[in-house]
Amino acid sequence: MPAPFLYRAWVGASMLLVPFFARREVRKLREAGLPVDRAHEKLGHATEPRNSSGPLIWFHAASVGESLSVLALIDRMGKTLPNAQFLITSGTATSARLLAQRMPLRAVHQFAPLDAPGPLKRFLRHWRPDAAVFVESELWPQMLRRTYEGGAKMALVNARLSEGSIAQWRRFPQTARYIFDVFSLILTQNDAMAGAMVAINAPPERVARGINLKSMAGPLPVDEDLLFEARAALGHRPVWVASSTHDGEEETVLAAHQALLEQIPDLCLILAPRHPERGDAVAAMIAQSGLSMTRRTAGEMPGGQVFLADTMGELGSWYGLSDLVFLGGSLHPIGGHNPFEVAQSGAAVLSGRHVKNFAETYEEMEKIGAARLVDTAEDLAGQVATLIEGEAQRGAMKTAVAAFTAAQTDKLDSIAQRLIKALDLGANG
Are 57 and 130 in contact (CB under 8 A)? Predict the structure, then answer.
């Protein structure tokens, strides 16, 4: 298939623009505290060797959510393909740090090269991927075509395009066909997106509905020493967790906790805001509410009426302290956060109703009794009190959570097998 004019124009433009974008991207990574050699991965200069003992499967994602969403899938594929090596690329310093804490076996991380001839040639010459899996909407034209022309089998998973992107692809049907033709398999998040992909000239026989991989991210890491220390500090106090809260939600959570303390005086709230840099602002809210507080960034353990967990990378340990978690980003139209991470800890899930980013996941969990949705501080306090004091209800929710988690694991195994077949990776890699 000949390259359309728009693709050739982008190749020419990228050659002119790469010095500007290279300086910008390297500067961003340097300002985030990364060494210069790692920042130069953006230019295609590898900082890790390619292991030649088996096939290399490359997973490319954009940022934190997309990167973490593929970890469980890589773990499943790695068990079936014991000789395979995995390369994960992403674009942000935050994604690199979080991936470093949760890296699967036989996997390394690099920053994705810029979509220009020089960086891509260096990157592909070093890594020589046998297969490549792209996540969601990371559709850089040269990256896709050059990888394909290098002989790698390719798939797109968790495909999700915005309405604006779909409209743009519709305007250039030849270019869309040229780009999407590289994929042996395109798995979308839902039926509507599968139809949209076909409508913009993705090969219909290669498009199928998959699952939302973000709803099946691998379990959060747990620091067993930290968990032991925190449990010792809490003693026999009952605990509930409010995690991934956003601006405007902490007030509701704190009001609910104040009401709960009248009923359960020794109750401890572990409050983990979504963005730890908001720690000072959240600490001021807690002080204004009149509640006593200990704070993780002050080196403290749970001890007051509220424990402010304003760090990154420790949320899995805090989940280990409670059977009950309220997940933020859901009391206002933010879209909600991933309940599967909570479910994997074995905890019952409470959430607000604004969960469009994980609507299908919450619908399934609510249907089987693994999650409950709330609207107000009074509603939240009522649900927490019912579940803390009602051992039977709490136990029933935990049983439902375990069933939900097992079902998602089966789905993930199915997706892993479809990818292995589509990418011609065989039974043993």
Answer: yes
